[in-house]
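Forgive a beginner's question, but might I ask you for the amino acids of a protein and the tokens describing how it folds?
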Amino acid sequence: MKYIRSSVYMLVLILVVIMVFTFYGVIKENIGEQYSTYEASSNTKSKILRIVDEVKSLVEKIRNLRFPYKMQIRIINTTWVLEHWGPPPKPSKEMLIKEIVYKLSLLVPPNFSIISGERRWTASFMAAAAGYTLYIVEDNFDLEKPVARRALAHELVHILQYHYFHVAYPSTLDGRLAVLALIEGDADLVADTFCNLTGIPPRPRLGLPLNNPYIALHSFPYIFGEDFVLFLYSKGGWDLVNKAYTNPPRSTEQIMNPEKYLENEEPVKVELQVNESTDPLYTDVMGEYYILLVLATKIDFKEAYKAAQGWGGDMLALFHDNNTNTWTLYWNITWDTTNDAQEFYKTFNEALVSLNASKINESMLMKKYQIWDYTIEIKLYGQNTFIIVEWREAGTKY
């Protein structure tokens, strides 16, 4: 699979065609067999409902699953989307902590705003599904364009998934992205099959928007998911895809290397031993894809991809010292072999050099850098690389 640095146009295409809103929504009401609408003209309503019925019929045949009766359609607009699904006017403490994790792990630059990233993503939804409800975002939904029908086919699959399968989302970032890749890959394969059967031009191959790492992080299920599901389909048809919901992929590594899913190669459980007197504010498993993004936004993509491939497991933790207002991020990554660890160690150092980081200390198995207001240390030992990032923040205490 080949990926390129995408333009702003491709980024917009990614956001308009597909959505990140999780199909396992919070809508629980007993709605019955009816359509409900929201602030749309009667002409627009009738057109949308007619097209939805046409698309539903073919999606049922492709996926070999029948739609439930308890389904509704809501026609909304971008203002409603931002009010109900968008981020709050001010970031919560949890959002701010995630923002700091993304910064200190070098996914995003120091001036990154998680609120801006979330608003940009949310405002571009064309359609979405949550529970048994299909949402149509009227001001983003152009009835005259074939891409609208593809988007409907994609979102309608989420309603089938909600009705027939019940997947629990893992607590880790890596695990959630893997499950989302199964879900979105299933929907994309059906949507592309729908296009092939109806003569709609195929969707352009999506590129990784490396110019916006936060959007690239959200884009993983849509860029890698369909190939993963297509691999399963080629081995066992829809039966094997359906079985994947009872035994979902455990890591982005399994999505990017689907043979590892069938071989049941699971992530290694990584321990993180640090000298801290308080509990961490955040812990997570970031995964192979996250590491790829950290590297690929700074150095050649092929080199970054190769360096990330040997991932075996990881554990990240974020601490905060209230007395000094210092954030410390610890990140222990276990690799498949010592050679893989050495390759990442070398490549990560190259990435820091590309950012014009100043080397302040080094030995054969350790290097320490200063960049922006961060102090970054990376150590190599056996099949592990250990990264420590410190940042003393002026201002607000947490």
About this structure: Residues 1-38 have pLDDT under 50 and may be disordered. The first strand starts at residue 72 and ends at 76. The two ends are 43 Å apart (CA to CA).
